[in-house]
Amino acid sequence: MGTEAVTITTFLCQDETESTEFEKNQKRYQDLISTFSHSKGWRPEESLIEHGGHWFIQRRLEGCLHAQDFFQMRASDLMLCSHPKTGTTWLKALTFSIVNRSRFDESSNPFLKRHPQEFVPYIEIDFPFYPEVDVLNDKGNTLFASHLPHGLLPDSVVKSGCKMVYIWRDPKDTFISLWFFLSKEKSKRGPLNNLEESFDMFCRGLSYYGPYLDHVMSYWKAYQENPKRMLFLKYETMRANPLPYVKMLAEFMGYGFTIEEEKKGVAEKLVNLCSFETLKNLESNKGEKERKDRYTIFPNSAYFRKAKVGDWQNYLTPEMAARIDGLMEEKFKDTGLLEHGKMINDY
C-alpha cells in the first residue's frame, strides 16, 4: 500500500474496527486492480488503469469499486453525472440552491463560507474515502454526484429509478480546463506532462475517466433509452443563456418555481448567486484556501479558472483542434447527439 493510501486510510478511520474493515476491502480492490491493464499516466509516477473501457488513477478506481459494492441510491435521490471539468461545480451549486432556496437568503447562504463541491458528495470519492463528512450523514440529503461513466455506476443507481442530470462540454475546452486544473494539484507523483503530450493522450482516450467521448456517449445512450429519467445538458448553451435552463432543471427535479417566485425574480437571483463570477469572487474560493473536511489536493480556487467558452483557442493549434473535432464528428455521427446540441441552442 502506498504512502498516499495509508494517509487516506488513517484519515478515514474512526476506530480500529472500521480501520480493519476498510483496509480489508481496500486490499481486495488493490489485488483486483493489479490484474487490470495499466498504462502511463499524465505524471511520471502515475499510472492509468483500464476498467470497463475507461481509464482511472488508482485512488478513483478503488472508490469506484467500493461504490459499486456499497452505495445505495434511493428513488427520491438525484444523481448529477459529468466528466471532470465540464461544469460540475456550477451544476452542484445550482441544484443545491434550487432544493434549498427557501432555507437561505443572500446573507446566510452556505456558499459564503464553503465550496459548492462540499454540498453534493461524489459516490466514488466522498462516499468511500470521507464517510464522516456532514452531508453524507444527513439523511435528508438527496443530491449525489459522480464522474463515473454510465456503465460503471452502482447497480443501485440504475435500479433505483432515480432522476439523473448529465452535463457535457466541447472536448477542446474540457481538455484545456482539465490540464490547467491538474496543474494545480498538490501531487507527489511528479510534474504534469506538457500540454502537447497530455493532449495526445486525451485524444487517444488515455485520461482521467476517459475516453471522454465514450463517457458522453454512455449517457447519451441512456438518455435515449429513457429520456424522462435523465436531463441531458450542454455547458456552452447553458452559459449562453442560463435562466431557461435553470428553470428547466428545477422543473425536472420537482422543484419548479412558483408564480409568486417568478414575480419576485427568485430564479434570476439564483442564477446570479451560482454564476462563475459570483462564486469565484467569494472569500471562501480565493487564494490557497482548502476544504477542511477531507484529504485536500486542490485549493478551492482551482475550481474557478475562467469558465470561458472557446478558451481552447488560446492554447491549441488549428491542427490540434481539427484532430479532436474529427474524433467528435466520427464518434457522434448518426447518433443524434450533435443535432440535439443544436436544438438546445435554439431553446
UniProtKB/TrEMBL annotation:
The alphabetized UniProt keywords are: Transferase
Q: What InterPro entries does the record tag this protein with?
A: P-loop_NTPase, Sulfotransferase_dom
Q: Recorded E.C. number(s)?
A: 2.8.2.-
Query: Record keywords: Transferase included?
Result: yes
Task: Give me the segments passing through the membrane.
Answer: none
MF term (GO), any: sulfotransferase activity
Boundaries of every Sulfotransferase domain copy: 76-336
Q: What is this protein called?
A: Sulfotransferase
